[in-house]
C-alpha cells in the first residue's frame, strides 16, 4: 500500500470513508462532486460500519447529504469525529465526496473516493492515485495546484465538479484510483428488511 493510501485510509476507517491526511499525499477538491439524489444508494449505505476496531455511523438527512460520525478515545476522553458525505454516480460508478469538521469548523476542501458495495454487503473504498491527478493538473487537463513537500504531495483540484466527473468518465490512460488495496468496511448490523 502506498503512503497516500495509508494516510487516506486511516480517516476512512475512522469516519467510514474518508480521510485524515495530516501532511501526507492526497487529492482534494474545492467543491463536492454533484449529488446523485439516489435514495436507493443512500438506503444501502445507511447504518453502522466496522473497520478494524472503529464503528462509524452513516445517516442521510432529508436534503440527501450524508452525516457520518465515529467515536474516538483520545487523551482519556471520548471524542466524536464527524463529517458530511455526498454520493455521486456517473456511468454506473459511485463516488463519495466528504469533508470534516475540525475544531467546530468545516474544512474548506472535500476528499473523494470511488466506492462499491459487494454482494456480501461489504463496502470497498478506493482513494485517488495522487500521481495521476498531479499529472492532470500539471498538464492542464484539470485546474488546480500541486504542492510537493518533505512528507508528500498535495493536489488540490479547483475545476468545476462537472469537469472533474467528465475527467473521471473519459480518462483512459493511467489508473485513477488505488484498486489494488481497497479499504474494506463491514456492515456491523444487517440491514433491516423494509416493512410491508
Topology:
Blueprint lengths: L2 H12 L11 E4 L9 H7 L1 E5 L2 E7 L5 E9 L2 E14 L2 E10 L2 E2 L3 E8 L5 E4 L3 H10 L4 E6 L2 E6 L3 H10 L12 E5 L9
Parallel strand pairs: 1-11
Antiparallel strand pairs: 1-8, 2-3, 2-12, 3-4, 4-5, 5-6, 6-7, 6-8, 8-9, 9-12, 10-11
Brief description of this entry?
With 196 residues, the protein is α+β, with helices and mostly antiparallel strands. It has helices at 3-14, 39-45, 130-139, 161-170; strands at residues 26-29, 47-51, 54-60, 66-74, 77-90, 93-102, 105-106, 110-117, 123-126, 144-149, 152-157, 183-187.
Alpha carbon gap, first and last residue? 45 Å
Strand order of the largest sheet: 2-3-4-5-6-8-9-12
Spans where pLDDT lies below 50 across 5 or more residues: 1-23
Q: Overall mean pLDDT score?
A: 83
Can you tell me about this structure?
The chain is built from four helices and twelve strands; from the N terminus they run H-E-H-E-E-E-E-E-E-E-E-H-E-E-H-E. The chain is an alpha+beta fold and 196 residues long. It has one domain.
List keywords for this structure.
alpha+beta; eight-stranded antiparallel β-barrel; disordered N terminus; 196 residues
Amino acid at each position: 500500500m502506498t503512503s497516500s493510501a495509508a494516510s487516506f485510509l486511516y480517516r476512512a476507517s475512522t469516519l467510514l470513508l474518508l480521510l485524515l491526511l495530516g501532511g501526507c499525499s492526497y487529492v482534494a477538491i474545492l467543491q463536492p462532486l454533484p449529488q446523485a439524489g439516489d435514495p436507493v444508494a443512500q438506503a444501502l449505505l445507511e447504518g453502522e460500519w466496522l473497520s478494524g476496531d472503529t464503528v462509524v455511523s452513516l445517516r442521510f438527512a432529508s436534503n440527501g447529504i450524508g452525516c457520518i460520525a465515529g467515536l474516538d478515545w483520545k487523551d482519556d476522553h471520548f471524542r466524536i469525529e464527524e463529517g458530511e458525505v455526498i454520493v455521486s454516480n456517473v456511468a454506473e460508478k459511485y463516488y463519495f465526496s466528504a469533508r470534516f469538521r475540525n475544531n467546530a469548523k468545516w474544512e474548506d476542501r472535500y476528499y473523494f473516493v470511488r466506492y462499491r458495495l459487494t454482494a456480501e454487503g461489504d463496502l470497498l473504498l478506493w482513494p485517488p492515485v495522487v500521481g495521476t491527478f498531479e499529472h492532470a493538473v500539471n498538464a492542464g487537463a484539470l485546474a488546480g495546484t500541486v504542492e510537493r513537500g518533505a512528507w508528500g504531495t498535495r493536489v488540490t483540484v479547483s475545476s468545476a465538479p462537472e469537469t472533474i466527473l467528465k475527467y473521471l468518465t473519459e480518462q483512459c490512460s493511467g489508473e485513477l484510483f488505488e484498486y489494488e488495496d481497497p479499504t474494506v468496511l463491514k456492515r456491523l448490523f444487517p440491514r433491516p428488511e423494509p416493512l410491508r
